[in-house]
Design goal:
With 363 residues, this protein is an alpha/beta fold. The protein has eleven helices and 15 strands.
């Protein structure tokens, strides 16, 4: 199988355009046309992970964290990043990262944390702005369904947990072909009128090109009439963190024990505000930036990591912060990626690393 086949699945699941500006998700080493007979999935890309891939004959490593965040000026093996890149290139091992783009989808890293906690009714804690467009296109009535299906297949018409969403209105379209036109219907110089449907779809920005291309491919006219409109709507399925509720509230100490046990965490936490935990906010990795959003949502706790000492005071007796560690908060991301690839490629070798890549040791 080619590396690009795996990439297409990953990027349709968590589009690269959803990554943060500081991130470096995507194909870091290798080329899309490279062949691989398996995938090694890990949280971090270390030399030991690349060694494991080489030993098992796998030529693609997919990690959550990118091995390269900033530009490299030298490749002399003086840093672990350089050594990983050099070894991967030498042994034809492609390296791919699916980082903040997987953080920023409802079914991604934070959705997996909610699944581990036993919360199924979660939503995005801080939905993204500016990610949605409206696509309006005019088409003969008899061709409307075919064009709509083409737009759906290209990623348009998805609203939260619903797909194949559109609005159709019927009207009269008029036109007069002039010299140089090749009309499907009508004659040069003659005013024409046709019963047409106006179709409207919500489209995420990363699917706009594909949707327009699909619509053109399905449209019968020489010239397709259409509009793109920027929307101020929030994209409910895209954004940072997750928020959900237990069906039955859990007492705080039982909840603390549950989190410690499931995530294998050494927990730092602030004084609980409520003895019963009902509403939970989570953010895999460094999530202190979501504290205010969690407080506004009336969450009882925020589970995340990497709080600095003075940031704990910002809980301000209105929420309980549970800092469970960066690695611990994201450890199930390996399972998440493995499950996705195994489902899409059931006869393909999708391996989870046996290397513990957590750089922190506890005494």
């Amino acid at each position: 199988m080619k590396v690009k086949d795996i990439i297409e699945v990953l990027e349709s699941w968590a589009p690269l355009k959803l990554q943060e500006s500081y991130d470096n998700s995507g194909l870091i080493v290798g080329a899309p046309h490279w062949e691989t007979n398996g995938v090694m999935v890990a949280l971090d890309c270390l030399e030991s992970v690349v060694d494991e891939a080489i030993l098992k004959g796998v030529h693609l490593v997919v990690t959550h964290h990118p091995i390269v965040f900033n530009g490299l000026k030298k490749f002399n093996g003086s840093t672990y990043v350089e050594r990983v890149i050099m070894k991967a290139i030498k042994h034809d091992v492609a390296l791919y990262a699916i980082h903040t783009n997987l953080d920023n989808v409802a079914w991604g890293v934070n959705g997996k944390i909610m699944e581990v906690l036993g919360i199924s009714n979660h939503v995005v804690l801080s939905p993204s702005q500016g990610l949605l467009r409206k696509f309006q296109v005019y088409v003969p009535v008899e061709e409307a369904d075919a064009l709509a299906n083409a737009v759906y297949a290209a990623g348009g018409g998805k609203i939260s947990a619903y797909e194949a969403c559109s609005f159709k209105s019927i009207g009269e379209g008029t036109f007069k072909p002039i010299e140089g036109a090749s009309p499907v219907t009508g004659s040069i110089g003659k005013q024409e009128s046709v019963q047409e449907a106006k179709l409207e779809f919500i489209v995420p920005v990363f699917a706009c090109q594909a949707v327009e291309r699909a619509a053109r491919g399905s449209h019968p006219y020489e010239v397709m009439a259409y509009d793109w409109i920027e929307l101020g709507n929030t994209a409910a399925q895209y954004g940072a963190g997750a928020l959900g509720e237990f069906e039955i509230p859990v007492d705080f100490m039982s909840f603390l024990h549950q989190v410690k046990s499931k995530f294998g965490a050494t927990i730092k936490y602030t004084k609980p505000v409520n003895e019963l935990i009902k509403t939970v906010a989570v953010c895999g990795g460094s999530g202190s930036f979501l504290l205010d959003a969690a407080k506004r949502s009336d969450a009882d706790v925020l589970i995340t990591s990497d709080f600095k000492y003075h940031q704990y005071f910002d809980a301000d007796n209105s929420i309980c912060i549970l800092d469970i560690g960066h690695y611990e908060s994201e450890r199930f991301t390996i399972d998440l990626i493995t499950e996705r690839l195994s489902k899409k490629f059931p006869k393909f070798a999708v391996l989870k690393t046996e290397v513990n890549t957590n750089p922190i040791q506890y005494y």
